[in-house]
Design a protein that fits this description.
Length: 633
């Protein structure tokens, strides 16, 4: 299913904006921007500031948060609340919302929600880090009063609890939380794919959310960090993407589905409060339709114009764009981002269309003094995913392909010489069958050149692979979309110039991570892609802790035993990982991380500021690949 401007709408839908092919509206005053906004403690100003939003809560706590009349209270003893019997988040009507100072408990205004849970409150204090909108009864829910539009729900309560814990521990004061940045953190956390339908109380919902989102505290803490002033100028960006589509709910009919892999080539202009990309993305889409005993596969090619504009907020080195996020290196030269979107539409026929995607973007600030010098030895890390299919008499055979590459690239006098070990896994998807793993090595040479804007061209035979290089030539990124008959493959390569004298002490510290990983499961006939962000903390002795929050997108294929019906379904969900690692670094800055029996390999720049890792995972019937980019804080 072709969808224009795959990257930008993922950002702008989450941010409440829309733009494609240029233009894009303007950012509202409460959206936040590149700057931090002013922190400080708020108090009664004597002027009126209007707050509005909606209050929602788990079913059992709806009645506990309401402020009913005396008659309502009497009736509630005899007739249980209808809302309390409904599972999931429900609007809270007749609840008193107060604008409250967390430090003094002084109230600066109040309002009561209507039947849909909406409220509008005229308060005498403007947004500040110490102010919250509070609903309380037998239970309590709060939200930071950081902007004019403030919803109150278990996610915002988790944010306020994180703030209160940090203040109680002496890590911060409420004045440290800049309103614009706090708004961006809340917006980001509110956009995660967390199912709270099993929670019956606010405490249950907060616990379930914190279990699914490992980095709540880190995202909230970002609101206290001064924005990285080095994030400016024009960046050359490239990326890879996977999109999944399903049409379901067809009465007496089989469903339709599709999966697409693609690449990006973009230029990104960074303004004070807006990101303006231009360029394009190219995709190969495999349409999946029912056939006797299985499915049929068809291929379509499409290209998107990725021009537009979107608001963003920068908190320290973290970029927030609605539900998308990114990281900027300390010197502002490198940027990496994970984006994605979920779109679901119910048609008049009752059928439901679902489109979900995940994207990884990587880039460098364009040089200001000529083309980067590409020379010396590099560690090469690669990741690829795609599909192979063959046509049969009654139905087609489909399998997923996963690739990971680790090796070296030596550049001298405009020629790149590669020595690469490639691990390939073929995963049957139209049938339940055995995975096939293969490892191969290859050596070859190809001309490589860099232009004044940092763009790179690698000429391999008749193919020209494009990419970007950092201004100092220490990092090179390449991507490629292969299309050879019944084989389509999207690949990303990241090369890190090798240093000398690297040690674990030189890379000890805290890194924020961005990850991207495709996976296929033959047993469940499942296609999956995920994006992730997290925190990696490395100690001098080589021990490390890692916590991330992964956003999964699945496309499942279900064929009846008789082969008469084939159905497709998609879902998106968050899950978190918390683990310990053992990390070692060779003198040439290659990195190995071990987690149990799993080994992760990669490299770090000589200054220790950017690390690139690739991981391969396999269980019975399932195979995964992940690339992780870590930016030192």
């Amino acid at each position: 299913m072709k969808r224009a401007c795959v990257w930008l709408p993922a950002i702008m839908v989450a941010a409440g904006m829309s733009a494609c092919g240029g233009g894009g509206g303007s950012s509202g005053s409460d959206t936040g921007g590149g700057g931090s906004g002013d922190g400080g403690s708020g108090g009664g100003s004597g002027t009126t500031y209007v707050y509005s939003g909606t209050v929602t809560a788990p079913s059992s706590d709806v009645a506990m948060l309401q402020s009913p009349s005396m008659l309502d209270r009497a009736l509630s003893l005899m007739v249980p609340s209808a809302a309390a019997a409904v599972n999931g988040l429900q609007p809270v009507s007749q609840a008193t919302v107060e604008l409250v100072d967390l430090q003094t408990d002084e109230v600066y205004g109040s309002a009561v929600t209507d039947s849909s849970g909406a409220y509008e409150l005229s308060g005498t204090a403007e947004p500040a880090g110490n102010l919250v909108l509070r609903v309380q009864g037998s239970s309590t829910m709060r939200a930071p009063a950081s902007a004019a539009a403030v919803d109150i729900n278990p996610v915002t309560e988790a944010v306020v609890r994180s703030m209160a814990d940090a203040v109680a521990a002496g890590s911060h004061t409420y004045a440290d939380y800049a309103p614009a940045q706090l708004t961006a953190s809340v917006s980001y956390l509110s956009d995660q794919d967390v199912d709270l339908s099993d929670a019956t109380t606010v405490d249950d919902a907060v616990a379930a959310y914190e279990d699914a989102v490992a980095d709540v505290d880190a995202v909230v803490d970002d609101a206290t960090v001064t924005p990285n002033s080095g994030f400016s100028g024009t960046y050359g960006m490239l990326g890879v993407a996977t999109e999944m589509f399903a049409l379901s709910g067809r009465a007496d009919k089989s469903d339709n589905g599709s999966v697409s892999v693609g690449t990006y080539g973009l230029t990104l202009d960074v303004g004070d409060d807006r990101l303006t990309p231009s360029g394009s993305s190219e995709f190969r889409e495999l349409g999946l339709t029912v056939a006797t005993g299985g499915l049929r596969v068809s291929k379509e090619t499409w290209t998107n114009d990725e021009s537009g504009s979107a608001p963003y907020t920068l908190s320290g080195n973290t970029i927030y764009m609605g539900g998308a996020s990114g990281q900027v290196s300390l010197d502002g030269e490198v940027v990496v981002a994970e984006t994605g979107s979920t779109e679901q539409t119910t048609l008049s026929s009752g059928e439901v269309t679902m489109v979900r995607d995940r994207n990884l973007l990587f880039g460098f600030r364009q040089p200001s003094s000529g083309a980067p010098t590409l020379s010396g030895s590099y560690t090469l890390i690669g990741l690829g995913s795609g599909f192979y299919w063959s046509n049969g008499a009654d139905n087609d055979y489909l399998e997923g392909l996963l690739l990971s590459d680790v090796g070296s690239m030596a550049i001298s006098n405009g020629t790149a010489t590669f020595n690469v070990t490639e691990s390939e896994t073929d995963v049957p998807l139209s049938t339940t069958d055995t995975l096939v793993d293969d490892t191969s090595t290859s050596s070859f040479s190809a001309p490589i050149s860099a232009a004044a804007d940092g763009s790179v061209v690698l000429t391999a035979g008749s193919d020209s692979i494009t990419g970007q290089a950092s201004a100092d030539g220490d990092l090179i990124a390449l991507n490629e979309l292969s299309d050879e008959g019944n084989l389509v493959l999207s690949q990303l390569y990241l090369a890190v110039r090798q240093g000398s004298g690297c040690s674990i002490g030189a890379i000890a510290g805290t890194y924020r991570t961005i990850g991207y990983g495709p996976a296929f499961d033959s047993t469940q006939q499942l296609l999956n892609v995920s994006s992730a962000r997290g925190k990696l903390q490395i100690q001098n002795g080589g021990t490390a802790t890692y916590a991330d929050t992964t956003r999964d997108v699945d496309l499942g294929i279900s064929t009846s035993a008789t082969g008469e019906e084939t159905h497709f379904w998609t879902e998106a969900a968050n899950h978190s990982t918390r683990t310990s690692l053992s990390v070692s670094v060779a003198s040439d800055c290659t990195v190995t991380a071990t987690q149990g029996s799993d080994q992760i390999t990669g490299a770090v720049t000589a200054d220790g500021n950017v690390m690139v890792l690739v991981a391969k995972g396999a269980t019975s019937g399932k195979s995964t690949r992940d690339v992780i980019v870590a930016i030192r804080q």
